[in-house]
Write a structure and sequence with these properties.
The complex is a heterodimer of chains A (about 130) and B (about 210). Chain A has about 130 residues and is α/β, with parallel strands linked by helices. Chain A contains five helices and five strands, in the order βαβαβαβαβα. A five-stranded parallel beta sheet of chain A has the order 2-1-3-4-5, sandwiched between helices. The longest helix of chain A is centred in the C-terminal third of the chain and has 18 residues, at about 110-125. Chain B has one domain (about 10-90, about 120-214): CheC-like (Chemotaxis protein chec, 3-Layer(aba) Sandwich), CATH 3.40.1550. In chain B, a hairpin with a 3-residue loop joins β3 and β4 (about 80-90). Chain B is globular. The chains are: A alpha/beta (about 130), B alpha+beta (about 210). The interface between A and B is medium-sized, with 24 and 24 residues.
């Protein structure tokens, strides 16, 4: 079950848009990181159940952050939320182990559907145990 | 050079515009990649507010990215009104021709090189600018019409005329994205410049854009 969600995006507006697209009534704890380095550090500290990750960020981009997180936590569920919808970018992050790729700007219905998919995936991993 | 952040456009509005530009340019590169086999590495865009009188200095400083530069310029008008400028190094025209020839998308071989370069720069500029401005307009719920794209060489009378076409008493909002065509190792710059006439409309449109997320 999803309890903790980490949003990694350098844009405060993008983080705000995504946060408000996540249902408020399900008690999720939402954490934020401002670039890839911050994302890796917060991942290790918070151990979120899922991450929304931007790709184009200063200091450390999303590709490198995904690779780094997956190195130590292959089970990490990372949903890429990006404006870069070139097919090669999408293929690259899927190869790196991203769970799904979503196109910016976020839409509430799409974000809700993704959360359901992630919940299903987490349940099947744990053999249906909550 | 004097760059000032005028209070007419708040930090929050700049951040919203930056995210919109990010989304728009991401869409534009995907459109380009569908047409030609090219991958574009993106950087986070930036927003500057400055007097149009400072624009020539700003462009010169930014165009030092390249020793020689080609510019594709296209104006657009509607609620969202301004100019878009794609800046690429001169040699990029030839490199892009090679990619287009590989893709057998058109027959440049019968035309002189200078003409081919101009055509390919106009085509790439038209796609990137059109898709980027188009997406900004879609997100802000408006539409614009465009002048045809124009290729301008940095050291030419056309460049001077282009720069002089801006009213120096006005404020400009510059949306800038630096990118790299990976296959041909070329850096470029896309600027959208909108002026004072559009600022009031733009501020309202930005707040309207954020309403579903409040």
């Amino acid at each position: 079950m999803i309890k903790k969600i980490l949003i990694v995006d350098d844009s405060p507006v993008a983080r705000r848009m995504l946060k408000s697209s996540i249902p408020q009534n399900r008690g999720y704890e939402i954490y934020e990181a401002v670039d890839g380095y911050d994302g890796i550090s917060k991942y290790q500290e918070i151990k979120p159940d899922m991450i929304f990750m931007d790709l184009t960020m200063p200091n450390l981009d999303g590709y490198n952050a995904i690779a780094e997180i997956k190195k130590t936590a292959p089970e990490a569920v990372i949903v890429v939320m990006t404006a870069d919808i070139q097919q090669k970018s999408i293929s690259r992050v899927i190869e790196l182990g991203a769970f799904l790729v979503l196109k910016k700007p976020p839409r509430t219905k799409i974000v809700e559907d993704v959360l359901i998919k992630v919940e299903d995936s987490l349940k099947s991993r744990s053999g249906g145990k909550q | 050079m004097k760059i000032e952040c005028r209070p007419a456009f708040s930090d929050e509005e700049k951040e919203i515009l930056q995210e919109i530009m990010n989304i728009a340019f991401g869409n534009a590169t995907a459109d380009l990649a569908e047409l030609i086999d090219i991958y574009v590495e993106l950087n986070a865009p930036s927003i500057q507010v400055l007097g149009i009188g400072d624009l020539p200095d700003y462009l010169i400083r930014r165009m030092k990215l390249h020793t020689e530069t080609s510019i594709v310029a296209q104006n657009f008008w509607g609620d969202f009104k301004g100019s878009s400028i794609l800046v690429l190094p001169n040699r990029s025209g030839r490199s892009l021709i090679a990619i287009l020839d590989d893709d057998e998308m058109n027959d440049f071989s019968m035309k002189p090189v200078a003409g081919q370069e101009k055509e390919v720069l106009m085509e790439v500029g038209n796609i990137l600018i059109g898709a980027c401005v188009g997406k900004v307009c879609e997100l802000l719920n408006t539409f614009v019409t465009y002048t045809p794209p124009q290729v301008i060489l940095r050291n030419s009378d056309e460049y001077s005329a282009f720069i002089e076409s801006f009213d120096p008493s006005q404020t400009a909002i510059i949306m800038e994205t630096v990118f790299r065509f990976q296959k041909i190792d070329i850096n470029g710059l896309l600027l959208l410049i909108t002026n004072q006439e559009a600022i009031e409309w733009l501020q309202k449109a930005l707040h309207h854009f954020m309403e579903p997320y409040e």
